[in-house]
Amino acid sequence: KVLQRRYGIGIKLSQNFGEQISQLEDYLVEKLGKTSVLDGVPIRVIAPMARSMRPHRLQRGKFLYQSGEEPEALFLLERGVIEMQPSPSPEDPSPTAKIIEPGHLFGVLPLLTDKRYEASAYAVEDCVVWALAAATFHSLSSQYPLLRRSLGRHSRGRLSASDQAKAAERLGKTPIFGRLEPAELNQVAQSLVLQH
Question: 35: which DSSP letter?
Fold first, then answer.
């Protein structure tokens, strides 16, 4: 119980032993089970995920990842505050940053869609972040399809400019939208959301 309350001790012990100690795994299973996206997912699915996560310390003022980079991992914020800074686009030249607080998973949609990060993850203060490597995530989600479905059900994002162009083109070929002008098709495509 001490290790679960003082996760820092568990992290240091795990680093010294070269592998995660079981008490830390139990702590992570409980923590992951409390996230909104994994609520209701059986422990047998969450446990392998928790077993594979590794802690990372991130100093205030540093980026965990930047917009445009390939997705490396699924992240769970343990301590600190992360600001998600979306990249400006022609449609939204001044996007609003989003704050990630402890107990939240992030970096999910890029892993599910195999697309680059559309926002930079910036440490507003010193942080501890748990990371599940992309290759491990894909392996686990193949083994446990419920994991992918649960995460996908709760993950949404705006379409990229290239995806919006493809969507407008496809919409124009459908009977419902075929009579719209290109500018109107673009407006419809801009309002679409990506959900996996």
Answer: S
Q: Output the pTM of the full model.
A: 0.73
Report the distance separating Cα 8 and Cα 4, nearest Å.
Answer: 9
- Core vs surface per residue 26-38: b (16+ CB within 10 A) or e: bbbbebbbebebb
Give start and end residues of each alpha helix (H) in 34-160: 43-52, 108-113, 134-143, 145-153
Closest CA to 111 of 77, 144, 74: 74
pLDDT, tens digit (0-9, with 9 covering 90-100), for 147-183: 888 886 755 445 456 655 665 677 778 877 777 777 8
Strands 63-65 and 82-86: unpaired
Structural contact between residues 155 and 109, judged by C-beta atoms closer than 8 angstroms? yes
pLDDT band at 126 (very low <50, low <70, confident <90, very high): very high
Spatial CA neighbour of 112 closest among 40, 171, 166, 37: 37
Q: Which helix (H) or strand (E) holds 123?
A: strand 119-123
Q: Report which residue type is found at 185.
A: L
Helix (H) or strand (E) holding 58: strand 54-58
**Bridge partners of residue 122, in order along the sequence:** 63, 83
